[in-house]
Fold this protein.
Amino acid sequence: MKKRILSVALAAVMALSLALTGCGSGDPGDGGEKQGGNGKLVGVAMPTQSSERWIKDGRNMKARLEELGYEVFLQYAEDDVQVQLAQIETMIAKDVDCLVVAAVDSSALINALQTAKEEGIPVISYDRLLMNTDAVSYYASFDNEGVGRKIGEYIEEKAGLADAKEPRTIEFFMGSPDDNNAVLLYKGVMSVLQKYLDDGTLVCKSGRTSFDDTCILRWSQEVALQNCENYLSGFYADEKLDICCSAFDGFAYGIKAALEAAGYTEEDWPIITGQDAEVMAVKNIIEGKQTATIFKNTELLAQKCTGMVDAVIEGSEPEVNDTETYDNGKMVVPSYLCEPLSLDKDNYRELVIDSGYYKEEEIQNAK
């Protein structure tokens, strides 16, 4: 039995913080008491509802945990670091039996996670690795460096880089600097493409090829749009851009808008990659406005993470398949890594329609 001394003032502040966020769902009961088939409460902290994939992640986690009889307290922080911190502090105050956290910025959560550890609350890092803390028990994600490799390999094959007779131009749109996944993804991309930059097969006219120069804070679609507009006007007025190496479907939407505004058509449309296989991205791929994306089956991820939650609460060992890769600065976190898959016009039906991941009308009606 975990013990805690909480002041009335702290509880009131946390309750007020929660009320002000307006971002929660699944609050168990009027007083936040544990309910459900086994009396266990799981707090699930997701970063934002502005991206379709996180909505799906939260929905999948909640549904799978409830199937096992857990009460679920699901919260979204809308990419606000302080909101997420307040939400997690509230979850700790509610005496949750396990925390699942997909961080906005894990550096802001270190003290709260330490409190969770001291209170005996296991913490599972969901998709985004919690950095610089020994309070995390397990990590469920995709092979993030593998995601980058698949993006690089797709570009390599689609652009015919191995046998290219002429240089191809490329610009990079990489993920958020406060997300460890983005760093690993960039590493995977460059493990494939760096040699082509070095030998001149790929030419980045902006000169922006490092992670620091190409990362986009909070995975902002608007910043990707602005960056692409700046590249097109500053470096490609007299020459077409051939490849947009994008780490996220949201970036691809911004890139698409910039290209259309610059007068690009089907005849000179560049290769555009992405990640997450959002329904709008699949529609754009079908229509030829995006070339490819990385399909990450969030239903499988939720299944594996739910298994971790159930195991740590019941005192058993969860399934892991990596105990070496994910060093968060304080510890190597035992992990389960799901496999990402490349999706394009040739295989989208097999991956997301025939599998039941999306309905065809969902794609047709996407806006």
